[in-house]
UniProtKB/TrEMBL annotation:
Gene3D superfamilies: Enhancer of rudimentary (3.30.2260.10)
Protein name according to UniProt: Enhancer of rudimentary homolog
Keyword Cell cycle (UniProt): yes
Source species: Henosepilachna vigintioctopunctata
PANTHER family associated with the record: ENHANCER OF RUDIMENTARY ERH (PTHR12373), ENHANCER OF RUDIMENTARY HOMOLOG (PTHR12373:SF0)
Signal peptide: none
Alphabetically ordered keywords of this record: Cell cycle
Record's keyword annotation contains Cell cycle: yes
Amino acid sequence: MDLPMKVKIQMFLLRSQKIFQLEISPYLIMNMNYFHKAHTILLVQPDMNPETRTYSDYESVNECMEGVCKIYEEHLKKRNPNTPTITYDISQLFDFVDQLSDLSCLVYQKSTNTYAPYNKDWIKEKIYILLRQAAGRSI
């Protein structure tokens, strides 16, 4: 896996009204304990063309949210192929999520043996929580 050495993340924590800029290893994010151990399917459609639809499946919600971040980081790598360090803040990530034609998750619900659908707003909330937890561990 080709990961950058460090990922810079700038976060604005709404409740505390503070801005944090962090450099963390992508491996730290990847090795975090997942708070949702439910099989999750990520559905992505980058533009209006139905042929661009793809899906990925993950062992947990957090792993899926990391997958969304990786999609954005791959997008940035394609736009900046000679840049060794990817730098972005959470608002840029959320703008990217918003510009996708469709992005949703299906999360397995053990109690009903079904998958529950979740939209972009839910995904952004889970990404925010994931990155906030990563920021707390690296300070």
